[in-house]
Specification:
- With 325 residues, the protein is α/β, with parallel strands linked by helices.
- The protein has a domain of 163 residues: FAD/NAD(P)-binding domain.
Length: 325
């Protein structure tokens, strides 16, 4: 059996960031992930300047696809507004692999099935033993399931579903576009160019509202494809979209049970206006690492709740999830 001070389940941005900070402090840590990296990851793939700062990322030295937008083109029914808003796009399979390698932590391809507590330690599948355990494996994280689900149940009103496709494409429009609430969608669709000739297009919405309205995410995907074709933004593509589900930020109060922590999507931290998860994942990973290193409290009070600011973010929050969630 291999022993480590900290075992992190999940090697995405939350897990790799936590590992990176722990390694900086000289803590012995291992990352376990059911996938082999680099791996395909569904995600629109935009990151904020704050993510860049939190990761201390030198974008001039970043060796993969990286693109910067100085504004976002927002389409709201028949209204089109260019919002000044610096954002960046990356390809998630490149970004995640880079962060994981940069962390310097050993990585094991391992599908976690059972976690037991023995004499103040956590034993994972009779293969790994650790003093601290960090769950960073997304919505279905086994650490959340075993130690924090009862105290922190998922709020159905905060579940979002997405459908998207990333592909090689010689795009001509280098701007990022977001279309809100088309065809009564409780969410938005996107067009996100990537450097080196790739493009991500997709759609996301609140699962509960979609169901109540008798809608279907695939139906809204077809509306997006038709729009892209009619505007000549994307043509002649054999789309192969795929979907996934995750949760927006709720009243997440219990994120630690003894020495077991949850971070990122395992805690349900995506922003309440634009449903963005990478920033909160990175922030929570840093906070959990600092709590382990310093023996301090672990709280998500300081983790970003909104991608934007002001009245627009509040309006989007109300239209997406209402006042009750």
């Amino acid at each position: 059996m291999q022993e480590f001070e900290v075992a992190i389940v999940g090697g995405g941005p939350a897990g790799s960031t936590c590992a990176w900070r722990l390694r900086q402090a000289g803590v012995e840590v291992v990352v376990l992930d059911r996938e082999s990296f680099p791996r395909t990851k569904l995600c629109a793939g935009w990151i904020t300047p704050k993510v860049v700062a939190d990761l201390e990322l030198d974008i001039t030295a970043y060796p993969h696809s990286f693109m910067t937008f100085q504004h976002i083109n927002a389409h709201w029914w028949r209204t089109h507004v260019e919002f000044p808003c610096v954002q960046h796009s990356i390809r998630r399979w490149e970004f995640d692999q880079y962060l994981l390698e940069r962390s310097g932590a050993p990585v094991h391809h391992h599908y976690v099935k059972h976690i037991n507590q023995e004499n103040g330690a956590y034993v994972i599948d009779d293969k790994f033993r650790c003093r601290y355990l960090v769950g960073a494996a997304g919505t279905k994280c086994p650490v959340y399931r075993e130690f924090l689900r009862d105290a922190n149940p998922r709020a159905r009103a905060l579940q979002t579903v997405t459908f998207e496709h990333e592909f090689a494409y010689d795009w001509s429009d280098s701007n990022c576009h977001l279309w809100f609430f088309g065809e009564r969608l409780p969410g938005y669709s996107w067009y996100v160019p990537k450097a080196n000739g790739h493009l991500n297009v997709g759609i996301g919405g609140m699962a509960g509202k979609l169901k109540r309205r008798g809608g279907d995410i695939r139906m809204h995907w077809q509306h997006l494809v038709e729009r892209l074709d009619e505007t000549a933004m994307v043509r002649n593509i054999d789309y192969q979209p795929a979907g996934y589900s995750y949760y927006l930020r709720g009243n997440v109060e219990v994120v630690r049970n003894a020495n077991a922590f949850i971070i990122g999507d395992a805690a349900g931290l995506a922003t309440r206006d634009l449903c963005e998860g990478i920033g909160p994942a990175v922030e929570s990973g840093l906070l959990a690492a600092d709590a382990i290193v310093n023996g301090s409290d672990y709280s998500l009070d300081g983790v970003t709740r909104y991608s934007g600011t002001g009245i627009v973010s509040k309006v989007l929050e109300q239209l997406f999830i209402g006042r009750s969630a």
